[in-house]
Amino acid sequence: MAWDNVLGVAIVMGIFGLGILVVLWPGEKHGRRLLTRWGIDRPSDEDVTEAVRYLKRRRIAYPCLFVLLPVLGDAAGLAEDTPWTIVWTLLLGGLFGELFAFRPPKTAQRRAMLAHRKVRDVIPAWALVLLGLTTGAGLTYYAAHGRWQAVAVVAGCGLVAAGIVALAVRRPAAGDPVVDLVLRARSARVATGLAIAVPGALFDAEMSAAAVGVFVLGLIALRVVAGPHRSVAAAAS
């Protein structure tokens, strides 16, 4: 794609990203709904504030990502594929959000943890095993067919997801311990679910029945892994 066309796409996507940011900019109701869906039925005002801050950290980067990703995606042959721009925006937004959480605002309430979080506290082992299996299978399949762009996408998504899980475990605690765990778990599970679904979504336009089945299974895995889990809050209470 010519650079003038890439620039035009980037500008359009940037405006689209800015519009998405305005529409999705979180407020109190968004924070309260997030916590309720994840098993915290009566969140305090401080809990809601922490959840809103969590959402803002992820969404603030959306406009910039929508501008930059079409340019970067042009090198991988995905510049005109809006769904992939959205997937990468969600993953990288989550990564930036966890990085921002390493420097919580001075006004944020922080509480000492009695024990360090472990990976299994934020995501079950079977989900990580599934991530490894799908990523490995995707890398093997696409490498065998010489689809190196798909190999790069699968590897990149897997690495970003692994980074988000690691950051979700290691970042400083903030706010109520149960809320803190729920937000960590949400970050890890959403990133892992997206990365699990990616390998099955990169087949050619003319998909076979088997490819469609793999794609559907990927979506089911995404829903199961990333969907709200009220058990996280229950286990931490």
Explain the overall architecture.
This protein has one domain (about 5-235). The protein is about 75% helix and about 0% strand. It contains 11 helices and no strands. It has helices spanning about 5-25, 30-35, 45-60, 60-75, 80-100, 120, 125-145, 150-170, 175-195, 210-225, 230-235. The N and C termini lie far apart (about 55 Å).
Indicate the topology:
Blueprint: H1 3-24, H2 28-37, H3 45-59, H4 62-75, H5 82-100, H6 119-122, H7 125-144, H8 148-170, H9 177-197, H10 209-226, H11 230-236
Based on the model shown, name its key terms.
single chain; 237 residues; mainly alpha; 11 helices
Number of strands: 0
Terminal CA distance: 53 Å
Shape: globular
Please trace the helix and strand order, writing H or E for each element: HHHHHHHHHHH
Q: What gyration radius follows from the Cα positions, in whole Å?
A: 19 Å
* Number of helices in the DSSP assignment: 11
Fraction in beta strands = under 5%
Largest sheet: none
Proportion in helices: over 70%
Number of discrete domains: 1
Q: Which structural class do you get from the secondary structure elements?
A: mainly alpha
Contiguous uncertain segments of 5+ residues: none
Mean model confidence by pLDDT: 83
Offer a concise description of the structure.
The protein is mostly helical and 237 residues long.
